[in-house]
Amino acid sequence: MINQTLVEELESETTALLTSTSALEPTASVVIIASLAFFASFGEVAPLGERQRAILNGIITPIDTDPFSPLAPSTRAPQRPSQPPIFTTASNRGEVTRRVTIETVNNALTFTSTPSTGTQERYRGSTEQQYDAPPIRPGSNNPDFLGTGGAICIDGFLNIGDEAIYHVNEFRLPDGDREIRRYFTGGRSFSNGTVVFVSGIGSSSTVFDVAIEGTNPLRRLVDVPLLNGAVNIGELTTLAAQADNSTPRVLERPGIELTVPGIFLNPGGNSSSPAEVVSVSDVGTSGALVSVRRLTSDGDIDTAAPLETGVVPIPNPEFVIVGDKGTFLTATVLNTSSSNPGNGEESVGRFFFSNRQNFLRFS
User: What total number of domains does the chain contain?
Assistant: First the structure.
């Protein structure tokens, strides 16, 4: 491996050098040995070969070079063991994000459209370079690429004109298949504290249809139960969300029902408003019912206000007449028309309290 004659010459030269430099420290002699072995003469091959000469990384004896040593510059023998395999369900191959402006909202429950069963709102936006995100691909069965589809928002809901972050995540599954997930973030919060407009009574007198204020398109929630107290149709109030995981934080309808589970309606700030009687049924009897409309600030009938029908006049129903002005009241009362009487079921009662002392005319 190493020329024996060359080694003997080096040993004799080294002995002579050590004899003439006996005053040097032991470490100095080692440096001289290393220098003789490392530096080749001009125009000659390196004494120990191109790949076997000593590397001065610390103190290495150049003559006693062991190519099988772990410190040798050659390939280690034996080789290092291979890294154990890492088992995972899917490997993330990267994420691409873009800021977009929402231009389309699909599958929204509004006052003019009802989405299909089990659908969720989907959105499509435009980047600064005017690219659609996600794009529309004719013939695709992926709801992300359909013209009536788009990507979902995982942290709320989005309005037309909102800015959001569009995410594209690619995963490589263990079986070699590729999965790509597309979604938006930066949505508006929904559920607890959301301001709504009470638009009407729902499928029963204890639930209401409401519109979510400040949404575009204007979203609708149906059959929202009243938490307690009372609300008036046409007033603003807020939602109350049940504090559990069953309450969604996005506008989705996973089942056939359009109702959102776990959402309730807080009572309104004012359960009474001025109104005027516009019609009376069963006039002059104790079972008379009236229809009323709310009044404007100058005391006239508000023709844009909804007509409240089936209102019970109090305290003297038999004396109420058309044109009476008073107070329209809503309150939670005992339901005497329950299918199971005596169970304490409550409902929202609607009353009209007349300001005219009718009974004085007949005393």
Answer: 4
In a domain, 82, yes or no: no
Task: Name the helix (H) or strand (E) containing 31.
Answer: helix 26-38
Kindly report the pTM of this predicted structure.
0.51
Can you give the residue range of the structural domain that contains 255?
195-265
d(CA 286, CA 271): 24
SS3 label, residue 154: coil
Half-sphere exposure of 190 (CA within 13 A, CB side): 27
In a domain, 123, yes or no: yes
* 1 shares a domain with 21: yes
317, two tokens = 């129903």
Query: Considering the domain boundaries, does residue 83 fall inside one?
Result: no
**pLDDT tens per residue across span 186-200:** 888 877 888 899 888
- Mind listing the pLDDT tens digit for each residue in 93-130? 567 888 999 999 998 888 888 888 778 889 999 998 88
How far apart are the C-alpha atoms of 46 and 37, rounded to whole Å? 8
For the CA atoms of 206, 211, 214, 217, what is the dihedral angle to 10 degrees?
Answer: 160
Kindly report the number of other CB atoms within 10 A of residue 96's CB atom.
Answer: 10
Distance between CA atoms of 173 and 88, rounded to whole angstroms?
9
Quick one: tokens of 22? 């006996």
Please indicate, yes or no, if residue 80 is contained in any of the structural domains.
no
pLDDT band at 27 (very low <50, low <70, confident <90, very high): very low
What are the pLDDT digits (tens) for 203-256? Answer: 887 788 999 988 889 988 888 888 877 777 778 888 888 766 555 566 666 566
d(CA 146, CA 134): 9
Domain identity same for 150 and 207: no
